[in-house]
Design brief:
- The structure holds two protein chains of two kinds.
- Helix content of chain A is 64%, strand content 7%.
- Chain A has a three-stranded antiparallel β-sheet.
- The longest helix of chain A has 34 residues.
- Chain B is α/β, with parallel strands linked by helices.
- Chain B has two domains: 227 residues, D-Maltodextrin-Binding Protein, domain 2; 96 residues, Periplasmic binding protein-like II (D-Maltodextrin-Binding Protein, domain 2, 3-Layer(aba) Sandwich), CATH 3.40.190.10.
- Helix content of chain B is 39%, strand content 16%.
- In chain B, strands 10-9-11-8-12 form a five-stranded mixed β-sheet, with helices on both faces. A three-stranded parallel β-sheet of chain B has the order 4-1-5.
- The relative contact order of chain B is 0.15.
- The chains are: A mainly alpha, B alpha/beta.
- At the A-B interface, helix 3 and helix 13 of A face helix 1, helix 4, helix 6, strand 10 and helix 7 of B.
- The structure holds glutathione.
Chain lengths: 425, 339
């Protein structure tokens, strides 16, 4: 093969850009790039000209003016006196509030269903197939509505929970009552549940605009700390067992380590629950999970879970049958075989398509508008866009937002993917 | 993937390029032979398709009168349903020629959004509807209530202001359109539904248990509703404006759909003669012909007739003329002189 690869010794001539196959590729790429740049320039110019013709400008100043509208679910502190920028952040937080738990729950559902679909139990395998097919083949929007509408229509209004003196006198029961010892109310508005509160909170730390709740941070540290200490105890027990053959009893140590610090923490901070109570129109106190949020989350989880189940099933089937047989031969039971041998290997096949399901789920949260859930699409891309008339600006920001979210998800998932890939040495 | 990106860009550029022609709405409508009117998604009495799929209503009638004035045929209208959120984008992008859809004339919309509100065909204000058995008789008693509200409307801004001014709090449920808002309200997802009082009356008229709902006495805002056109095409704005005023003027002069021919044949009143195109060349000056106003009146009657037929006291919606009576009867409807 040596005779074909050496370049001619004579110098470069311009005509070679067209006739020499080694350079022609570059020429074509360059021309295409140039044409594409011209096309983009033409589009931009056209947009600007049309905006000018309509007497519209292009700037993002509107983001700092007063929003003037209210939002139902605000995870970021917000009132109608805040700016459109703040409203945008509220929307973003609402999007994440669906997307993050959505991805986690959908993965759990997907893995369980995917594994069960391969079960030898005929009934379970069929049921899972039915679930997957139903959810994959009906549009997500319909699922959202199908879950939302019954939640709204089949529940009672808050005032139906009211017990008046006349009713007591007449021995009547209210139309609806609360659950779990009067702590949870499910009404047409949503689910009101108790809210954990602290009488002596540790305050919060402001880190450049983001405030960190020290109480929750401390709780997290305590939980992680006790888990770590518990692992040390068990590791020591393991060592003792290996050297002496007798395993010391450690369960009471574990229980103490895992519970005592946390209970002490709760007592020290004055932990208590705030229960929802019925006021003039609504339940107040506690936390409110709107039906729109719950319905959107459930629909997204079940829908995406069906796709993930198929990915998981495909991943498992991709592992050669010999692995299972080898593991049986070693005496591992089927459950252990799945969790110790098959799934870890299948993960390599599963993760890349799983990432794109996470991206889908995140983008699909924008369907929340159908059930009046104000996310990114509802705030920045809905009310703000409409009240300010800044279509182009808002749409660009929205696209940028979803793009950044997607890139963040895929880079995190890619890091994980790399860590579980086959390490070739 | 590559091709879809390519097609997407082509489509986007076509859109951007298509919006360029701001000046010549009249020519476009004539060439098309059809008027495209931005309408409600369905608000009975104002703009909604009836059982036969034919659009009917107070705002729809103005579209028809306009089509009659411009094209000589009241049926040559295509109605494009728009929600509170989509309407202005539809108009700005040139998807519709005119928006006649309970839209409030505000400073921002008139200036920053680059539209022109050419006239007011309904003077309204924002109200609240509640179920009778909620036991509320004034909007001031709504502290802590959950409120259904349409997104992208003036009403959601007024709502925030009203509660703040009265030191009250509320929970909003932001809904995309009127029918969904009514469904949320009926299901009890909110305690009260707020929008323009006329819209509330119209929504209530379609409810199965209309008698169980009351509209609270407080009117918390001014909502002058009227036809909207794009900035920059003044001739088209004039046509829409004077078609609407011709209908008001006709009511003032006692000209109806039934008697317009007869009046035209016999009248000696110079003002009537100018309006009906028997004298002068008003129509020609705005690019139409001289009996544009006559055709507009024949399409669905004068302003008063349209009001009574669609939303007046004899209809289920049952709105009184109130502010929308002629100025001669203590109302605000007042057409500048045709001269
Ligand atoms: N006048 C207000 C509200 C307009 C509005 O959306 N009105 C409602 C009810 S009055 C409506 O027309 N809904 C019908 C629909 O959503 O199609 C505005 O211009 O912002």
């Amino acid at each position: 093969m040596a005779y074909a690869s050496d370049a001619p010794k004579d110098g470069f001539r311009p005509s070679m850009l067209i006739y020499d196959t080694r350079y022609r590729g570059y020429t074509i790429q360059f021309i295409v790039l140039l044409l594409f740049a011209l096309f983009v320039a033409w589009l931009l110019n056209n947009t600007l000209e049309n905006l000018a013709a309509k007497g519209r400008t292009f700037n993002f100043g509107f983001l700092w003016s007063r929003a003037g509208y209210d939002i139902e679910q605000t995870l970021v502190p917000y009132t109608n006196d805040n700016s459109h920028f703040r409203a945008w952040m509220v929307g973003l937080a609402n999007t994440l509030a669906v997307a993050i738990p959505g991805c986690i729950l959908a993965t759990i559902v997907g893995v369980i269903v995917g594994v069960l679909r391969l079960s030898k139990n005929w009934l379970i395998a069929r049921l899972m197939t039915v679930y997957v097919e139903i959810f994959r083949n009906i549009p997500l929007l319909l699922w959202i509505l199908m879950i939302f509408v019954p939640m709204r229509e089949l529940t009672y209004e808050p005032r139906d929970f009211r017990v008046t003196d006349e009713m007591i006198a007449a021995g009547q029961e209210p139309a609806a009552s609360m659950w779990f010892n009067d702590s949870v109310a499910i009404s047409t508005r949503g689910i009101n549940a108790p809210l954990p509160l602290f009488d002596r909170p540790l305050g919060s730390l402001n880190l450049g605009g983001v405030s960190v709740n020290l109480t929750f941070l401390a709780a997290l540290v305590i939980v992680l700390g006790s888990v770590w200490v518990n692992r040390q105890i068990r590791a020591r027990a393991q060592r003792v067992q290996e050297s002496t053959g007798v395993r010391p009893t450690t369960w009471w140590q574990s229980v103490l380590v895992l519970t005592l610090p946390f209970i002490a923490f709760l007592l020290a901070t004055g932990f208590h629950l705030e229960y929802p109570t019925l006021t003039r129109f609504n339940f107040s106190g506690g936390i409110l999970l709107q039906h729109s949020y719950t319905a959107l989350l459930i629909a997204l989880v079940l829908y995406t879970g069906a796709f993930i189940a198929e990915i998981v099933r495909g991943g498992i089937l991709a592992i050669s049958r010999g692995q299972t047989e080898a593991s049986y031969a070693l005496g591992l039971r089927p459950g252990r075989t799945m969790s110790l041998v098959i799934l870890p290997q299948a993960l390599r096949v599963i993760i890349p398509p799983l990432i794109s399901q996470f991206l889908n789920l995140t983008k699909n949260t924008s369907l929340g508008i159908a059930v009046s859930y104000l996310d990114l699409r509802g705030t920045l891309g809905g009310i703000t866009l409409n009240q300010t008339g800044r279509e182009l600006e808002c749409m660009l920001l929205m696209m940028l937002n979803y793009l950044i979210l997607s890139l963040m998800i895929s880079s995190v998932a890619n890091i994980y993917n790399r860590s579980i890939q086959l390490k070739e040495r | 993937m590559k091709t879809s990106v390519f097609l997407g860009t082509i489509a986007a550029s076509a859109l951007l390029a298509g919006a360029a022609s701001a000046q010549a709405t009249l020519e476009a409508v004539k060439a098309r032979g059809e008027l495209i009117c931005g309408s409600n998604t369905g608000l009975t009495g104002f703009g909604a398709p009836d059982a036969n799929g034919e659009w009917k209503g107070f705002d729809v009638s103005l579209c028809r009168a306009l089509a009659a004035a411009v094209l000589g045929d009241a049926t040559k209208v295509q109605f494009v349903p728009t929600t509170g959120e989509t309407r202005f984008t539809s108009l700005a992008s040139g998807e519709v020629d005119v928006l006649i859809r309970n839209s409030t004339w505000t400073f921002t919309r008139d200036t920053e959004l680059a539209f022109d509100f050419v006239s007011v065909n309904y003077y309204d204000g924002q109200g609240f509807m509640v179920k009778k058995d909620l036991g509320v008789s004034s909007a001031k008693e709504l502290d802590g209530a959950t409120v259904c509200i349409q997104t992208g409307t003036t009403t959601e801004l007024n709502l925030a202001d009203f509660f703040k001014a009265n030191n009250m709090s509320y929970t909003p449920v932001n809904v995309a359109d009127d029918s969904e808002a009514a469904a949320q309200y009926l299901a009890g997802a909110c305690d009260t539904y707020t929008t323009d009082a006329s819209g509330l009356a119209a929504s209530r008229a379609t409810m199965a248990d209309a008698a169980n709902h009351i509209i609270l006495p407080e009117i918390i805002s001014k909502e002058p509703l009227g036809p909207v056109v794009r900035h920059g095409d003044n001739n088209w704005g004039d046509i829409v404006r004077w078609t609407q005023y011709a209908l008001v003027m006709a009511e003032e002069l006692g000209i109806t759909a039934a008697n317009v021919e007869e009046v035209a044949a016999s009248t000696t009143n110079p003002e009537v003669r100018r309006l009906l195109g028997l004298e002068g060349d008003m129509g020609v000056k705005i690019g139409l012909d001289n009996d544009f106003a006559k055709r507009a009146i024949m399409a669905g009657g004068n302003y008063g007739e349209i009001f009574e037929a669609n939303i007046g006291s004899s209809t289920p919606i049952g709105l009184a003329r109130g502010l929308n009576a002629l100025w001669t009867q203590g109302g605000l409807q007042y057409a500048p002189p045709f001269r």
